[in-house]
Amino acid sequence: MRAGSLVLLVTREIARARGALASAGFGIIAGTAALFFFLSLGLGVRQVLLGSVFPIDKVELEPVAKPEPGLLALVFGSAQMPGVAPDIVRSVETMPGVDHVYPKLRFAFPCTARGGAEIIGHEIGTSEMIGDGVDPGLVAADVKPPWKFVDPWEQGGEPCTSDAACTSPRYCERPTGEATGRCVDPVPVLVSRYLVEVFNRGLAPAHGFPPVGESLISRAQGITFTMYLGDSLLGRSKQGAARLVRARIVGVSPRAIDLGMTLPLGTVRRWNREYAGEAAASSFSSVLVEVRSAGDAGRVISDAAKLGLVPRDTRARDVSILIDGILALLTVVASVILIVSASNIAYTFRALLQDRRGIIGLYRAVGATRGDILAWVLSLAAVVGLACAAIGLGVGWGLAWIADRVAATRIPDFPFKPESFFAYPPSLVAGTLVFGVLFAVLGALGPARRASRSDPRDALLQG
User: Fold this and answer.
1) Which of 63, 254, 256, 317 has the most crowded Cβ, counting Cβ within 10 A?
2) Each residue's pLDDT tens digit, 56-100
3) Are 105 and 133 in contact (CB under 8 A)?
4) Domain map (residue ranges) of the chain
């Protein structure tokens, strides 16, 4: 059968039986709408959680924790945190599935911080500041010119004994035991988007502060603050003299520590050596591993366990498993609807072809083959499935739009609240249409085969 003849037959049949075909396709509309709505919601949530909150392509590994007396013992110097030796880092770099490895080094000394008058109007501070140091290469894309994410001490500077000898914004940093210091720029600091979100949507409203996300993310104005090294509310460091240093926020990075601040690795190593000893500077607290694909994360974790390393945070893996399970369940629900609709299409086509048995016999008598009849019926089913799937796609898209509008106006702000809870990749749109066509064709396949095998003489006599 020529394509033109096939199109003509399908068009005529749709015009004749449009009511019955529309009723048969209602299940396809409901099933594809549910499939598109559920999957777009799941993909949207997955994009936020595993992209911004718990990146699944990055695994932070740290040594297996040993029994310790607690934080106070660490502050007063009676406990030593386990570290990752440089040779272990090199072993991780050779693991299958590993793309890049970036060592990290946490503060091994107490510290406080204070600042924020430039954007809030008055200073705020914390009595215990948590921080870590990372390889500048890890965050190079998050630091925009003119800022640089390097240890200012390594850049050199004029000798000094006080800040008055330095040209602002430089200040005089003088390590413990040194007679003179150097005029250096404020230490570059990165903060996490998570910290900004917590401040903007939690702390700022509670204290009447303006949100700072726009200032930090879009303009990166180089907000400065002071840090007090070697002393905090919980106690003093075991060595070194407490002193003030200046720091400057140079950007917001998804690779920064969630609650605290991230500095150049060289700066933290230098301060750890000054306030906690050589052991705290010669090894690393953890290593951030970027895997080639999300599927490699499990193998990397398994191989790292042989080196005595475990994931610092398993939330990304747990969330990924949970989302995959929910998506699978919702897909099953939508598939059940489509299966029911396929049975409805089978019933409709059985009745339709029974009513057209005389016409089918006539077609066979004038030379139509079984393949021609099969192509005619299945093409009709495919057109019905495509049309109903397109309608279902529109319905699902409309429901998603309504859900987003309701969420924007009725759900209070919370950290990482997205502009949309849904994601619409082209593959999902195409897959929804394909599913609609597939289930319609499967539903019509049985009746089509029976119609194509019928004897034309019997069909003519019964018609």
Assistant:
1) 256
2) 567 888 888 665 545 554 445 445 557 899 999 999 999 998 988
3) yes
4) 3-52+320-462, 109-276
